[in-house]
Design brief:
The protein is an alpha/beta fold. Helices cover 48% and strands 12% of the residues.
Length: 151
């Protein structure tokens, strides 16, 4: 991995989260209320044997701990900060890889539910974390990964 590849991934996947949080937290502090929901990845919690993506894993692990740190710093301002860690879901960036026979077999073997996430399966977590009912939930790291990080 080159320095350029490393820096690009860290900038896109971690530094951007910091910059967006900094901008919105200022407004949220003025209002005494806010909900920050970061999206990391199950790879922010564990490694993998399928693809060598150390910068991606590092950046998503950074988002996980960034979320914990920010949740503590902003709690007194009425702002919660939590993180969703999706497993394998089809996106524009993952579509081609997830369709390969290798990855389909990998998921069947390594994801306890034996499948990829389906459209809409992240929604309930995000809606809950954004709700008033989650006003005492901050610093939570919630995997939505079919059990991948449980084993």
């Amino acid at each position: 991995m080159t320095d350029e590849e490393w820096n690009f991934t860290i900038d896109v996947d971690l530094s951007s989260v910091f910059k967006v949080t900094r901008a919105f937290a200022k407004i949220m502090k003025e209002n005494g209320y806010g909900r920050i929901i970061n999206i990391a990845s199950m790879y922010g919690l564990v490694g993998n044997t399928a693809i060598h993506t150390v910068a991606y894993h590092s950046s998503k692990g950074g988002v996980v701990n960034f979320t914990r740190a920010v949740s503590a710093e902003l709690a007194q301002d009425g702002i919660t900060c939590n993180c969703i860690c999706p497993g394998y879901f089809e996106t524009e960036l993952t579509r081609d890889v997830l369709k390969t026979e290798f990855f389909q077999n990998f998921a069947k073997e390594h994801v306890p539910m034996g499948r990829y996430g389906r459209e809409g399966e992240l929604n309930a977590v995000a809606i809950f974390l954004a709700s008033d009912e989650a006003s005492y939930v901050t610093g939570a790291i919630i995997p939505v990964d079919g059990g991948y990080t449980a084993v």
